[in-house]
Amino acid sequence: MTNKMMRVIYPFTAIVGQQRMRRALILSAIDTRIGGVLIRGERGTAKSTAARALAALLPPVQVVKDCRFGCDPNSPITWCTECRERFDHGEAVPVETLRTPFVNLPVSATEDRVVGTLDIEKAIQKGERSFEPGVLASANRGLLYIDEVNLLDDHVVDVLLDSAAMGMNIVEREGISFAHPARFILVGTMNPEEGDLRPQLLDRFALSVDILGILDPRQRVQIMERNIAFESDPEAFREEFLPKEQELSAQIAQARKLVDKVSYTPRDLLMITNLTARMQVDGHRADLVILKAARAHAAFEGREAITPRDIALAAELALPHRVNAGPFRHSEMGLTQLEEQIEQLKGAASEGGAAEDESQQEQSDSKTGQKKSPSPPESNLAPNPLDPSP
User: Fold this and answer.
1) For the segment 80-120, what is each residue's pLDDT rounded down to a tens digit?
2) Is 97 helix (H, G, I), strand (E, B) or coil?
3) Beta partners for residue 172, in sequence order
4) Spatial distance between the Cα atoms of 210 and 121, rounded to a whole number of angstroms
5) Cα(205)–Cα(34) distance, integer angstroms
6) Ordered DSSP codes for 143-208
């Protein structure tokens, strides 16, 4: 019974509140190219629970069978050195389907443990290349979770963020090199009371969420009731939320297929850069992150074009940890001003949507010659579980 209970993960859709955290995790799951997610909050706010629940929720992935790095059979350009050699030698590349891996990185991890090691002695004596995979190999196409990331060695954090950004891990020693894909969802959690990350590393996390304990009495009761129910019978509790889990998993899988088709206009790009310029954000990473996150959000809602609302929701996650964080500019605009700017974008999105609906209605009426009563647009998609954001 104990082993069975250990295998059951608390459902992602059973987490009460914390919409902004859930949105950040889902957007990163849709497009891992966005970058890492940093969740900062006090103790007991479901930070680690959400990370583990997301990994259990994600759809299974197809991998090259017997590959130590879980290479994607549909993307030969990202194959590891071993898979490339197998293919070049005319060997078959069989495929199998596996669950999305979840890897927990300990705070004491060293660089060699993370990136892997090359056996130089074996290479010199026998002329054979021998590579011992590290954590990045295990996490490929999965979720890499780091609890108390602020206590991890800065150099190791930098290596992780580099690999997450490039999508590849390249190890070179004494003229010998080995490469394998390292595309994963990076989730770091921390309690600011135990120390913060250096600004340089903080900026490398694409999205950041600051969460607090929920103060609404009814929601706190709901949290207690769900946790007690889960501890009493984990299997029954998961079965209760299974339809919602499957629905969200399917929505993420569909969004992954759609995200590269999501378009944007020069006006959208100008809207993003105007926002970051007004907030005097250092560098240009924030602009790219907002665009990628906005496209992922549009794909999540089943759309092929981004809107000002997508940009606003992405900016809520991409900018707070970058405002007043850089040494080169000291903006007088803080989080309050950032929230006002984002609210203006949301307002523009609402007005723009209403105007577009009215224009389409007038065009339809002029064609049919009949005046129809306005009605809300219908959608076959499930309602977005991430809105409204707090």
Assistant:
1) 888 888 888 888 888 888 888 888 888 888 888 888 887 76
2) strand
3) 177
4) 47
5) 9
6) EEEEETGGGS-HHHHHHHHHHHHHSEEEEEETTEEEEEE---EEEEEE-GGG----HHHHHHSSEE
> Are the C-beta atoms of residues 61 and 141 closer than 8 Å to each other?
yes
Run of H or E including 105: strand 102-105
Cβ proximity of 226 and 19 under 8 Å = no
Cα separation, 130 vs 187, whole angstroms: 30
Contact 13, 241 (CB under 8 A): yes
Task: Identify any residues that bridge with 132 across adjacent strands, giving them in sequence order.
Answer: 117
Contact 27, 300 (CB under 8 A): yes
Q: What are phi and psi of 277, to 5 degrees?
A: -70, -40
Q: Are 219 and 17 in contact (CB under 8 A)?
A: yes
Catalytic residue among 7, 204, 285, 322: 285
As a whole number of angstroms, the distance between CA 95 and CA 83 comes to 12
Give the CA dihedral 372, 377, 378, 380, nearest 10 degrees: 150
Long-range contacts of 239-247, Cβ-Cβ distance < 8 Å, separation of 24 or more: 241/11, 241/13, 241/14, 242/11, 244/11, 244/13, 245/11, 245/12, 245/13, 245/57, 247/382
**Catalytic status, residue 43:** no
369: phi > 0 → left, psi -120 to 50 → alpha, else beta; which? left
Q: Which SS3 state, helix, strand or coil, does residue 102 take?
A: strand
Q: How far apart are CA 159 and CA 383, in angstroms?
A: 38
Compute CA 27 distance to the chain's CA centroid, rounded to the nearest angstrom. 5
Separation CA 147–CA 105 (nearest Å)? 8
Q: What are phi and psi of 179, to 5 degrees?
A: -130, 145
Place of tokens 């250092």: 282
pTM of the model as a whole: 0.75
Model confidence pLDDT, tens digit, residues 291-309: 999 999 999 999 999 998 8
Amino acid at 113: R
Partners of residue 97 on adjacent β-strands:
62
